[in-house]
Amino acid sequence: MNRNNQKEPLFRKVNTNARNVHHNFGGDFKYSRNKKQETLEQTKGTMYGKKDRGLDYTPLFRFLLSKIGSEWNEIFSEAKSRLDKTEPIFWVVALNQNEKEDFVRIGESTYFSGMYIDDEGILQLTNPTLKSTDLKHYCNCCTHTFNGTVY
Prior knowledge:
Blueprint: E1 12-13, H1 40-44, E2 55-56, H2 58-66, H3 72-81, H4 89-92, E3 93-94, E4 103-106, E5 110-113, E6 115-117, E7 123-125, E8 145-146, E9 149-150
Parallel strand pairs: 3-6, 5-8
Antiparallel strand pairs: 1-2, 4-5, 6-7, 8-9
């Protein structure tokens, strides 16, 4: 907890000092800066808005996993108060039965269990028997994790 008796946020900035950590930088301005005329994007801006780069929501996903079996409304209100936006919650939590997934791939080699809200409003795992041995490696060069543990 920090000094104001508020809980820590459920996201963090990615380690920018590590080697080979790519944050999707570049390409926004370098293709248009040497053009003779200004483009419409430069004068009026784009409709797509600013990209969020360098945020890691692993603390959020671990928080949600720790709350399996609890009431969704309480979980959501606490998570919402500790986040910058609510979209990452729904990367792993399905609101509809047809959106349920056994696991969700976050990034290149990070996997988390899929979750859903049952009819009583309780957060549940989509597949409680899923283990890291059920997942396959897509490449041998990366460190793969499932629910925060290396496999």
